[in-house]
Amino acid sequence: MLAAAVTAERSPVRVELQDLIRAKPAGESIGLMTPRVRAFVSGGHLSPFRGRGVEYDESRPYQAGDDLRTMDWRVTARTGKPFTKVFREERNRPVIVWLDLRRSMHFATRGAYKSVLAADAAALIAWSAVGNGDQLGGLVFSEYEHHELRPRLGHRAALRLLQLIAGNPCWRPAGADAAGESDMEHSLLRLTRVARPGSMMFLLSDFRGFGADDEKHVRQLASHGDLYLIHVFDPVEAELPPPGRYRIRKDRRAFAIETSDPGGRARYRDRFAARVARLQALSRLPGVNVLDCATTDKPFDVLTKRFATK
Questions:
Q1: Highest mean pLDDT, choosing among 55-59, 67-71, 188-192
Q2: Four-residue CA torsion sign, 76, 226, 34, 42
Q3: Of 124, 225, 288, 305, which has the fewest beta carbons less than 10 angstroms from its beta carbon?
């Protein structure tokens, strides 16, 4: 019922502000809680310790799965047994949404554009954060604009973020002037400067062009808090359609692709597999999670599969 409210009467190729506002009940029903509990949070829920901005509470014996960064080495050395620190956060947890709206995101062969699904997921996360009493911040970028919002409390924080998403020039008809190619690496670098210790961060993108420099920033972000990489993709990006000649329309342009060459099909498949493998390798870091969202999926279902509903 809630998921249906998010997607009813929606354009598959663009978003409107009212669409994102309409996601409020569905977003508030999602509890953005990590199951790896480490510290009590003043905002009324539990989350793991990440970095500074927390108050030491006590030390207890180490348990399987505890974050090694919270080890109490002094007590461990004194007792000869591993101990870990327990912290109480001094403020509400910041939730930060990093949203990629570059040209590659405005594509789908079925379902809705990747950009539409990512924007819907961002709205759900924003409303969930506000409903949990968390601070909400964001970073939205495309070839047209790059905007950052410092974490703030309350509904106004959510509305400011949604206005930035819906108002981005990327939704305009093709032909609007763009500032040029966007830089994912620069945007991730900016995120490392916006993110506060203890943050919960959501990166929504197709991660096209994700390279070594981008990975370096993601690793740095993982040391600040919990990181969720939401990989949005179209099924045809993973595997070309059956051999043949296909006509594709993108914005106002139309072109044809030939999918009969076995070598070309293999190289195409390998490029996507390499991108997925790079993301999956990051998911083995403490606090890093990868969620897949195909253009045929519903963001509400993807998020509730990972997080509980209230």
A1: 188-192
A2: positive
A3: 305
